[in-house]
């Protein structure tokens, strides 16, 4: 059976909210203290401090008089945050993530409870040190026979409370085969383009609420720092950000589910999302001088969500790929990622000729070798599908020609002595 997390909103009582806020405050404090200890240990002594050492430090912190309040909350979320910090460092050393950041109070917070810190009885959830069950709004189907393995309580920046219940879900079963295959190209003018010549427009939820967000942020900037009115104005800004986030997430879930249901094989590009966010178009100076012309953002807002109070979300490209990955795994469909250096846009889908340059402002082009006319995005998606089919048959990465960027990188690398 597959593991699945069900997320619900709940409304705590004043006493429950008080305890949960204190728990999240303690989690944030322990996480930040452990991160500071590990950072100082590395820079001062060149010593890697791991989970075992920070767990021992947590025991010592609880004995200190000024940190005695750590004993008033459940010990499980405190221990779990140290495990999360260890995982963050593992991803950092594996070059899969940036260096861990300190947690901030304004970003809300979360606390994870394992089996020893909660009780599941008759469809009701009881957390450690809380006598009454959580008032959960069961907004979707939840398998009644499943027993939760982990419960995560989260407070988002807009003041909403959510609980995420992790279970082994028996309802996740392979979908029937359709015999269809699709290649997907992430676009600029449209959200995605499929090899079936279908273009999905970007709904641009951020642009839809931009004026409202601008008005709320202007009101926030006029409030006195530290005042109650500023706190209320900050919540109003956070609520607009929550609307943008919810609309974007809902749209992506519906789109990825539709693609997985209709196709047995999905081929996508393994894109460098950070490069897309930093992408700029620099018009060359007309006088041939060395000075660069003014740089203008062209793709940053189109490819990356606006920073939210709870930290920046992944770009919609990363979230789109993430959803496709786990849904294909759930429903026994095949997802193939093509090498990011594969020249999908510059390669002619008719004869295979690769043009030297193809700027982003050129949306249609004609092959100089065979004369075929191509829509840039449709041609790229069809090439991605062809490469994905080759990978599916051969079981290896398809790179018939090395791109200039890969060759340039190889030349810069010095031979090992």
Describe the structure.
The chain is of the alpha+beta class and 417 residues long. The protein has two domains: 2-169, no CATH class; 181-282 and 296-403, no CATH class. The chain is built from eleven helices and 16 strands. The strands form five sheets. The chain has a five-stranded antiparallel β-sheet with strand order 2-6-7-1-5. Strands 10-9-8-11-14 form a five-stranded mixed β-sheet. It starts with a strand and ends in a 5-residue tail after the last helix.
Estimate nothing, just give the exact number of structural domains: 2
C-alpha-based Rg, rounded: 25 Å
Low-confidence stretches: 280-296, 302-314, 402-410
Mean pLDDT: 85
- Total number of beta strands: 16
Structural class: alpha+beta
Which series of helices and strands comes N to C? Answer: EHHHEEEEEEEEEHHHEHEEHHEEEHH
So what's the overall shape?
globular
Report how far apart the termini are: 50 Å
The strand line-up of the biggest sheet is 2-6-7-1-5
**Biggest sheet record:** 5 strands, antiparallel
Number of helices: 11
The helix content is 40-55%
What amount of the residues lies in strands?
A: 15-25%
Q: How would you summarize what this structure contains?
A:
This protein is α+β, with helices and mostly antiparallel strands and 417 residues long.
Features:
five-stranded antiparallel sheet; five-stranded mixed sheet; globular; 417 residues; alpha+beta; 40% helix; single chain
Give the topology.
Layout: E1 2-10, H1 14-45, H2 51-63, H3 75-93, E2 109-114, E3 118-121, E4 124-127, E5 136-137, E6 150-155, E7 161-169, E8 181-186, E9 192-194, E10 199-200, H4 205-208, H5 210-221, H6 228-262, E11 265-269, H7 273-278, E12 280-281, E13 296-297, H8 300-303, H9 316-330, E14 334-338, E15 364-366, E16 373-375, H10 376-394, H11 404-412
Parallel strand pairs: 8-11, 11-14
Antiparallel strand pairs: 1-5, 1-7, 2-6, 3-4, 6-7, 8-9, 9-10, 12-13, 15-16
Helix pairs in contact: 1-3, 2-3, 5-6, 6-9
């Amino acid at each position: 059976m597959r593991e699945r997390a069900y997320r619900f909103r709940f409304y705590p009582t004043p006493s429950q909210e008080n305890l949960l806020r204190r728990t999240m405050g303690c989690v944030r404090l322990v996480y930040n203290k452990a991160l500071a200890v590990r950072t100082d240990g590395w820079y001062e002594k060149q010593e890697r401090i791991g989970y075992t050492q920070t767990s021992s430090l947590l025991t010592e912190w609880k004995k200190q008089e000024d940190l005695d309040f750590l004993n008033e909350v459940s010990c499980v979320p405190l221990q779990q945050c140290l495990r999360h910090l260890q995982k963050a460092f593992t991803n950092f050393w594996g070059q899969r993530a940036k260096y861990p950041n300190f947690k901030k109070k304004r970003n809300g917070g979360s606390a994870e409870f394992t089996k020893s810190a909660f009780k599941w009885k008759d469809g009701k959830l009881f957390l450690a040190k809380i006598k009454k069950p959580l008032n959960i709004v069961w907004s979707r189907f939840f398998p009644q026979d499943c027993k939760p393995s982990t419960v995560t309580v989260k407070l988002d920046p807009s003041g909403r409370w959510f609980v995420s219940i992790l279970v082994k879900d028996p309802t996740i079963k392979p979908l029937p085969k359709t015999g269809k295959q699709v290649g997907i190209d992430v676009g600029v003018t449209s959200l995605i383009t499929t090899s079936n010549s279908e273009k999905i427009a970007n709904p641009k939820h951020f642009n839809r609420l931009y004026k409202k967000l601008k008005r709320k942020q202007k009101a926030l900037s006029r409030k006195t720092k530290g005042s109650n009115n500023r706190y209320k104005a900050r919540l109003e800004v956070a609520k607009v950000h929550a609307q943008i986030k919810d609309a974007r997430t809902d749209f992506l879930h519906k789109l990825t589910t539709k693609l997985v249901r209709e196709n047995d094989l999905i081929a996508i590009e393994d894109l460098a999302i950070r490069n897309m966010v930093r992408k700029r178009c620099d018009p060359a100076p007309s006088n041939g001088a060395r000075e660069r012309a003014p740089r203008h953002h062209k793709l940053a807002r189109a490819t990356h969500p606006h920073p939210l109070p709870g930290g920046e979300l992944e770009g919609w490209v990363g979230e789109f790929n993430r959803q496709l990955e786990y849904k294909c795994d759930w429903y026994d469909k095949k997802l193939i990622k093509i090498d990011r250096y594969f020249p999908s846009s510059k390669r002619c889908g008719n004869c295979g000729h690769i043009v030297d340059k193809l700027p982003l402002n050129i949306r249609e082009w004609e092959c100089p070798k065979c004369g075929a006319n191509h829509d840039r995005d449709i041609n790229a998606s069809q090439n991605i599908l062809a490469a994905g089919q080759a990978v599916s048959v051969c079981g290896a990465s398809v790179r018939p020609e090395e791109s200039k960027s890969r060759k340039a990188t190889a030349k810069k690398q010095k031979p090992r002595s």
